[in-house]
Amino acid sequence: MPQPLMELFPNSLRQVLEQLPAIARDSLEEIRIRENRPLEISYGSRYSFVREDGTLTDDHQGAFVPGREQCRALLERVTNHSIYAVEEELRRGYVTVSGGHRIGLAGRTVLDKGLVSHLRDIAGFNVRIARARIGFGAQVLPGLLDFKAKTIRHTLIISPPQQGKTTLIRDLARCISSGQWHHPSALDWGSRKVGIVDERSEIAASDRGVPTFDLGPRCDVLDACPKAEGIMMMVRSLSPEIIVVDEIGRPEDAEALNEAIHAGVRVLATAHATDLSDVFGRPVLAKLAAERVFGSYVLLWRAGGKVEHRIVSAEEAEQEVSRRYSRAAGASPRDAPATISKAANPSLVPQVQTEALVTVKARPMPVIRSPAPNRQGDINNA
Fold first, then answer.
1. Containing structural domain, residue 45
2. DSSP states of 34-89 as a string?
């Protein structure tokens, strides 16, 4: 665990975490601290509770339990002893600290005219550890290239949370900004100007405006800036060739992305989704997909402790989702004649060629006979 992050924890918590086994410490992803509840960590796609001596257990009964004073001390350090200074972040439910580590917060919400104003009585913390993985993008970037334009296609990276989306776009930005295309046909392309709108301060982990992660020599960052507004600021004043944003999903995000695309800027974005059906099922993403805004989709998932990926073109995505809608429509038995039903929202799913109906010949039902009465000997032997 990075030492600056470790220093945020009160002494008693820090002593427990410093004793974690090397296998957990080296692959640590999340630390969950809940007042008067067991200390939990997530590492290498696994989770465990932590005993006071740093050993791991699946039994929460024997785990170390942080108390009220420890949680108060952690909140003081996370907010740099000024809750008001991070009021906007508290309204969103997280604080990003130096190094790009995001700390999710749980507590009581305070409402103002029906909207969340801020959090109070904070008693839960989810410390998400940010790491740069140099070389991650080299596995994916060759499949995203637009060889005619000598750049990347508009790309959306999708996965559930904690699968590596932010880590991937960070390394893709570094590769593109450095001109490392990782393809023999792109050796003479040179680098591109990359603009990152880092709303949650996770991609670049900027410290006073300066990225602490390696993003290459031709990268500009708008730190802690709302995505939609930041995209337009980038287009108007920083002339990026590629814009990178994390976790899109609001209508204003889609409008800003369309503006950037029509201004000649390529887009690299991420979104929370399990698969392509989720993309076509979320209104904002479905609209972008139906308009073929994205030329490529990258699906990420964890398998055996590793992050795997699959690249799908826009055409393949439409066909795949159309087939799924066709199979899922209605409640017909699996062996029923094939028919085509309209999807729940035909405007979001491209139409596919109607399949020919299959004629199924009726077969005579087998005759079911009752068993003959048992003989007396059978009864006696029963």
1. 3-128
2. ETTS--EEEETTEEEEE-TTS-EES-GGGS----HHHHHHHHHHHTTT-GGGGHHH
